[in-house]
Amino acid sequence: MVxxxxxxxxxxxAAKTAAEDGLKVLLNERKKVITQAAI
Length: 39
Description:
This protein is an alpha+beta fold. It has one helix and two strands. The protein is globular.
């Protein structure tokens, strides 16, 4: 399992890459909504 802290561009890319590699991912973000600016 991989824990990613922060849903910014780098955090989202890390989470995406880990998930594509077959790992379980926990993404923690302090804001309730991740905006399109981060995607």
